[in-house]
């Protein structure tokens, strides 16, 4: 060890341990409101894109009253007011049924960032009938899009 190595490594440790600790000790740091806002804006735009694409692809498929996407929770605080585990479960199910998964994967990725720890897994049952399945997907996509509009609106009111 040279005479300069000591102080240099100590400085290195000081500078970099902090960063290392903050990135490793809290694997899920609480999201800042600005981060939540960014994720919601992203999700809202993705949900609209996905819905528009699906409507174009499956022309004339009607929505159905039989399906409900659990969107919001009683918690008034974003991101806790979004039932992201239920939405996540729906999109993981729809991903298995869809031909093009790129947008769905992006949505799941964004939802991952919102997901509370240890959220219980929910099962989503999918209709076996082909047309009914399309109605299920369309209805879910539409409700998700409306859900994101609602959340975004509530966020915007909150920041005014
Ligand atoms: C989220 O949705 C799931 C599935 O419907 C439901 O069981 C759960 O109670 C909801 N969570 C909250 C906090 O509302
Ligand atoms: C989901 O469904 C599978 C297969 O039907 C079942 O084994 C599992 O226990 C269910 N999980 C929940 C959380 O209901």
Structure description:
The protein is mainly alpha-helical and 160 residues long. The mean pLDDT is 84. It has helices spanning 5-24, 33-57, 84-97, 102-114, 130-158. The chain is globular and about 65 Å long. The chain has five helices and no strands. It comes from Galeopterus variegatus (Malayan flying lemur).
Task: Give short descriptive properties of this protein.
160 residues, binds 2-acetamido-2-deoxy-beta-D-glucopyranose, mainly alpha, 5 helices, 63% helix
Describe the structure concisely for a colleague.
This protein is mainly α and 160 residues long.
Write the layout of secondary structure elements.
Blueprint: H1 5-24, H2 33-57, H3 84-97, H4 102-114, H5 130-158
Helix pairs in contact: 2-4, 2-5, 3-4
Bound molecules: 2-acetamido-2-deoxy-beta-D-glucopyranose (NAG) (2 copies).
InterPro entries: IL-31 (IPR027987)
Protein name: Interleukin-31
Keywords: Signal
- Determine the strand fraction and express it as a percent band: under 5%
- The CA-CA distance between the termini, in Å, is 59 Å
Number of helices: 5
What do the pLDDT scores average to?
84
Shape: globular
Radius of gyration: 21 Å
* Main sheet overview: none
pLDDT below 50 for ≥5 consecutive residues: which ranges? none
